Please model this.
Amino acid sequence: MSDDCLFCKIIAGEIPSDKVYSDDDVYAFHDINPAAPSHILIIPKKHLADVKSADDSDQALLGKLLLKANEIARDQGLEEAGYRYVINTGRDGGQTVYHLHLHIMGGRGMGWPPG
Ligand code: 5GP
Ligand code: ZN
Model:
């Protein structure tokens, strides 16, 4: 828990969120400003500022983040049409919240490259 972190406050329930999934390790919730018809964020409960802050001790956690994202994508009915995962990192990556999060986006054609 990082005291000044928005997503740590969401995990703690201090800021409300529209929960999709929770267990001991990860938390998933709807993005407040969806960029696609289905836009969910999945985050580790452990505070990691960004993906490059992870180290070898986080190997299982990062694997779980992806595997749970797969389950969520399936549960949201995105599997057949497909979906996109995004991890923005740092300024040029467009990261605005410095608690590692994986965007799960689907429900429309996303196009490539992104704008
Ligand atoms: P980033 O740009 O850091 O990759 O993504 C941060 C995401 O968090 C954005 O898509 C933004 O809409 C979302 N977000 C920011 N504040 C909140 C909030 O208070 N609640 C929820 N549910 N999403 C948020
Ligand atoms: Zn945090």
Notes: The radius of gyration is 14 Å. The mean pLDDT is 97.
